Each structure stands twice: as C-alpha cells, then as structure tokens.
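User: Hi! I'm working on a homework problem where we have to compare a predicted structure to a textbook description. Could you give me the structure for the chain below?
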Amino acid sequence: MNAIFTHFFDLDALWRARIVMGEGALGTLRLAAATLLLAPIAGMAIYAVQLLPVRGARCATEWFIDLMRAIPLLVFLVMSYYLVLPLAGLSVDAFSAAVFGIALKHGVYFAEIYRGAYQSVPRGQFDAARMIGLRGRKLLRLVVVPQMMVIMAPALTSQATLLLRDLPLAFVIGYFEILTSARAAQVFTRNSTPLMGAVLAYAVTLLLMQWVTGRVERMSRRRMEA
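Assistant: Happy to help. Predicted structure tokens:
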C-alpha cells in the first residue's frame, strides 16, 4: 500500500514537476479558450451557408458535415497539420493546427445544434411576429434567437464539455498540453504522480462541466414549461 501511495501520490514528485506541469496547464488553457471561442463561430458560419438560397451550397455543406462527422478527430488533426493547412499554403505551428482542427471538427456539431434549435421554434411564432410587423433582423433578434437560446443551451454546454474532453488529442501533432507535460514529468521524476495529477485535473474539470450542463438543462426545461 505504501508503494502505491509513493508511486502515484508523491507530493514531492509533483512539486519537482511544477514548472513543466505549469507550462502544460497554460498550453491547455490557451487551447481551451481558443477552441471554445472559435468552434461556435465556425458552427455559425457553416449553418449560415446552409441557409443560403443556393442548392449547390446547401448540398456541399451537407456533404462537408457528413465527412467531418465521419473522420475521427485524431485523424483530422494529423491531416490538418501535415496536409490540409500546408496545401493551403499556410505554415503553422502545432497550436494553430490544433485550434483549426478541433474548432472545425466541433464546429459542424455546433452547426447541427443551431439548425435543430431553429427548426424547433414553433412556426406560429414566426406568423405572430409578422402579424405585428416584425421582419428580418428584428424578427430574429426579438423572437427567434431568444427562443433558440433556451432550446439549445443544454446542447451547447454538452458540446463544450465534449470539446474539452478532446483537447488531449492535440498531443498527436506535438502540442504541449497538460497530459503531455505530465508524461514528460513522469519520466524525469520516475514517478507517476504528475500523470495522476493531470488526470485528476481533467476529471474535475469535466465533472464540473457536466454539473453545469445539468443545471442549464433544468433551467432550460423550466423556462420552456413556463
């Protein structure tokens, strides 16, 4: 039992790894902030193309969504770093490629959330708004978007949780995030405590996000029933 605690819960090993673990944690925070900001924006752009009155654009977007959903994120990150971005003439680092890959991959799911929320708004709401003179942007801003936010809030927080869960996959293109730094610390400390610390940090973060998702879902349900 003492050997287990010494190997997995050695605070001295964790202290010796504090610098490299801190760099990895900052890398994870940077990646989380960038992808959580850009993935919903990418989803909006994809959904906006779906709304264009051009059949070719809608069909191309549907094919793109199906393709992105079929490709595993790990594979798409490698493709982004070594193929897609270089073919586009862009020379990027691992951080930029990770942001591009994760944000675009999850962007297609955000686009589907927006589409589902828009289609869930009762058609009678549109008719009633037009009867009182609301058109175009006013109709969207005052009637449609507020109802969409209530409908899709649980799905948005759930998707954000899934995005955070996928961040460690950025190691495949050499990005230095907290689990990568923990593995490096495990080598030079000859102890698994840094890795255990990184795993626990991720677990606590994801459990917190799941709690937030549950709260948002209950609040959304109450607002829809009101």
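For your comparison, note the following. Residues 2-225 form a domain with the MetI-like fold fold (CATH 1.10.3720.10). The CA atoms of residues 66 and 108 lie 9 Å apart. Good luck with the assignment!
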